[in-house]
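Schema walkthrough. Field components (list of strings):
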Amino acid sequence: MSTGDHERTHESNRERERERERERNADATFGDDYGGQYVPEALMPALQELEDAYERYVLENEDGFMDEFHERMRDFGGRPTPLQRADRLSERYDREIYLKREDLLHGGAHKLNNALGQVLLAKYMGKERIIAETGAGQHGTATAMAAAHLDMPCEIYMGRTDINRQRPNVYRMRMNGAEVNPVTAGSGTLKEAINETMRDWATTVEHTHYVIGSIVGPHPFPKLVRDFQSVIGDEIREQIREEAGRLPDSVVACAGGGSNTMGTFHAFVRDDDVDLYAVEAGGSSLEIDAEEGLAPNSATLSTGTDGVLHGAMTKLLQSEEGQIVESHSVSAGLDYAGVGPELAHLVETGRVTPVNVDDDAALNGFHRLSNLEGIIPALESSHALGYLERAAGTAADTSSGQRPRDEHTDELGDLVVVNVSGRGDKDLETVLEETEKRDLEAAPDVEVFDA
Amino acid sequence: MSDAVTENEYDSDVEAAIRENHPALITYITAGDPSLEDTKEYVEALDRGGSDLIELGLPFSEPIAEGPTIQAAINRALAAGTTPEGFFELVDDLETEAPLLVMTYYNMILQYGGSEAPRASDGRAAKPRDKPEVRPFVERAAGAGLSGIIVPDLPAEEAGPLRAACDDHGLDLVFIIAPTTEGQRLDDIMSQVSGFAYVQARLGTTGARANVSSATHESLARLEEYDVPKAVGFGVSEGDHAAEIVEAGADGVIVGSALVDIIAEHGSDTGAAAERLEAKAAELKRGARRGADSLTVDGEDAPEPEQP
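Field assembly_structure (string):
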């Protein structure tokens, strides 16, 4: 076959592949049930407009949209981020541990991938205003940065409680020119912020784009956000092949709403030999107190039940009557009673294994990475590191002799990639406070802080 | 009125209530605000005041379509311990002239009757059946004598299962028409109107407003060609609004937040609140009638009244 024939065959294969991908992506659900568009009628035309824009600009690269996205993520965002071998962790766990350094992305977390993608998309769609919700403030700061970068007016909704516990991020948003609207309803956290942003959008939908911060919400948001975030896994794939000559045995990422999780996993979903672990926040307990409407965790994939929240059918922390309960985690960014419908689907089919670690294990993970590798991770990412310790950790621990091993211990394999979704500077206050309350094995001497 | 005639002439109680009492007054309050006992008195007061249909809100913790007034009512109802079962027991007890509809969010419908497990108070997480199901809710609603369901977060595209269950039990599933609903979607939704078309007067959330939006007039003009009962809600708070909206071509007006405000103002003084609710309903109904009268009297400027 001549080179030309070969190229043509290759081209038509790619075309068929793209066609199949388009059909899958036009579906509003993952599997039969998860996802959908459970929103007020007023928003339906905007979702259809967004579906159309998603298809044309993101899937088909119309007007070179994706080229511009990648170019800006390189110049403004600092992509690609490194995949770094963690020498001490590799020694400690007696296997190859690689860290995907999303903490090095501009803004200090993976959030910019999605925020920049959506603000740019809004511009291509001719929208004039950006709104977004934020929990910990990471998505809000990323959206504010992207909006400033692309010269779009921007308003962020943030729960009153979160504003109080994440003040530096509030200032960062203000510095970048965004309005920050406090939301006082309910517990004043992410769930209420999303409610309020949806209400704004239902009023201003004709000229405003809602930059949702995770792979949650009505179709096409879960797919759109995943596609902007999937640059993480695409890079890992290429980098690990170069570094280790093969694909990893397992990939570990923390999961709240799930944007860094799906961003990391998406490139590997079809590689059956690569195990995918979504690490949720076990908080202080996995039990729900339905009478108080409280879940002292946000382990939605592990313990949640099916229902509809914020536009999608997914797994939820809810009472048996259907009221959504208040979740809790030491990490504000994981503190959400829902989860992306695609993750719910992948857990249901067994492709993704949901696990969870409690606040203590996450804090230990935070201290261990800081201390051993010189990387201060976000408390969200610290859950992934906490899980790594539980699943793989005994090799280096001679003091206690042995420690309970997780059932997945041997399944993690010899080559493991952990996504460090963000850096922990934002969490220092929380970590100091929470560390003083506890006796954490990996924490440095607290007296250092007292001095 | 005769039931036999109703059944022959109209598709449902809900449609009959609007057509026969044209121009109709549809009122909304949140069940359980501030308690289910109070709600019973308030519903009866609204019925006496001239409501032709009454919507009862079953509170859900994440009411994304509501403005601050109804959000606060929902919070009060939830704080008072309002449950779906308590709601249905209230409806079991109610005897009103006006047919009753339930307004709630889709998750409440999905989760109803899902658990045979011990009650939540034992501290365990809910473990409903594998997949949530809409039928137990619809069956219970029909059993309680409700005539229809309105679900603000369920667009027509996702309504298949609930619509089928409602059809089986003779309930209307009322769809909302937004100012942004146009073209093919508008045709599709108008072709499957059940009970009446709930015309959202303006973009945004529920809440009493000082005037009738221009979007209302535009919407009613856009919907003129469809021969289905149209009722306008979102922002309607006064008799004059009702008059203006009916004059613009609506078959009914829907009022919620203005009534919830009355309930909130009176707190525990149930008697006083009930009196004012009755009076408010009467004012709104008079306003609607005024609007209809001006159409027949002022024949030269106004379009012909609709048949019959």
